[in-house]
Amino acid sequence: MGFFGTLLWPIKWVIEAILVGFHSLLTLAGLESAAGVTWVLSIVGLVIVIRALLIPVFVRQIKSQRKMLEISPELKKIQDKYRGKKDQFSREAMSRETMNLYKKHGTNPLSSCFPLLLQMPIFFGLFSVLNDAYAGRDSVGLLTPELSAEFGSASLFGVAPLGLTMATSDGNVAVIIIAIVLVILMTGSQFLTQLQIMAKNQSPEMKNSPMYRQQKILLYLLPLVFVFSGAFFPLGVMFYWFVSNIWTMVQQFIVIRNMPTPGSEAALAREARLAKKRQKKGLPDPADEASGSVAVEEPIKTQRQQPVSKSRAKKQNKKGGR
Questions:
Q1: Rounded to whole angstroms, what are the CA distances from 133 to 10, 14, 129, 188, 242?
Q2: Adjacent-strand bridge partners of 160
Q3: Which of 82, 157, 213, 248 holds its CA 20 to 30 A away from the CA of 35?
């Protein structure tokens, strides 16, 4: 099996269990067991389970990314301090100050990559399961020989086997067309996900940081990964990747809308929405309350009674008695 196969064995077992579980539910719902759409929907179910389990990690990733952008100016000061100093003492001092900065703010550069790193074993595990099924090799878990044969021979629309890639399509036009469409959709969803972070969820200070410039470069480089790698992944794996990208895009939209970075365009838009809701309900603005500018009703002023002499009071009493 080899070291890599041993490492993937438990992951493949879990993947097969989730696939078989969703496949059973779909067949009970009336879908054909060997149909390509049934297995594609089972892969969608796999995405839902994996990404739902990764939500806490995603939230930590968002917080870590914000902290990294916040400390970017301090990080630049450390880099400028030791710029041009290549002796070992300076390199160690720079590394020590950088690590202390990360420790102080409770973040590190790798923490923002955790969701992707955690997904990669799942991605390669599905790749291995699908390849084994397509090649007729034994499964490692609940994917029985009959189900494995169905999974390996399943074709989308009856013409595009899920186990084929663009590179191994042998001239199958349907596989090539579907693969190209998936590459375009994957690239577009990845670009839009990163773009909504860059355009709406960055404060002015963050946009002036070196970290922002690096993210801007990645905005155009990362989608190219799908363009070149898409030719070598089976259609089933590409469906997993595409649905996972859609999940990320929607999840990112919800986070930016409800938990935007302070000072960003998304934060200003959220404040405007909340102010509009308060205005409709007739509620006071918290900002006005905090500044003490809430309107206070002035007391009604009463006219002060002037003092009256004794003789004048007697005359008024006589007049009143008439």
A1: 17, 16, 6, 30, 21
A2: 156
A3: 248
